[in-house]
Known about the structure:
Order of helices and strands: HEEEEEE
Number of strands: 6
Strand order of the largest sheet: 1-2-5-6
Number of domains: 1
Strand content: 25-35%
Distance between the termini: 100 Å
Number of helices: 1
Largest sheet: 4 strands, antiparallel
Amino acid sequence: MKGKEGFTLVEVMIAMVVLLLGMLGVMGMQYFAISGNTASRELRTGTNLSAEILEEIKGTPYANLASGTNLPATGQAISGAMTGLARAWWVVPNCVALGANGNTCAAIPAPACAANPDAAVVSPVSAIRTRTCWTDTDGTIHSVELDTLRWDENVIP
């Protein structure tokens, strides 16, 4: 028929295949975006839990500083994907910098003092390290480690 224009069945099928391929690409990107968001949420939660310990230590009198371990308080909101959650912290007196103690959660050795500017003079400062460990839904172990210093507020320099 002359003068009648439209789409043929083949053209419609090709257009549908192209549309399907585009939608599959978008679905794949969505999967990776959700995975990235989950990992980001877990890392943020782990960092907040380590920072929480540092904040508690800031309010502790210098003479009472001590190393320890604990789990988050009962009822505290933790991401559902995080299991095997554990926190540890170390207080190393008379130290201004901690050395590496292996970023592992299985057996965590206490960190040693890496730098003391003047070994002959006792520094009224303690180096503090916190570590939060957890296992994600894939069974991968992750950790966050934060370091800080705490000056003895009762010592006048």
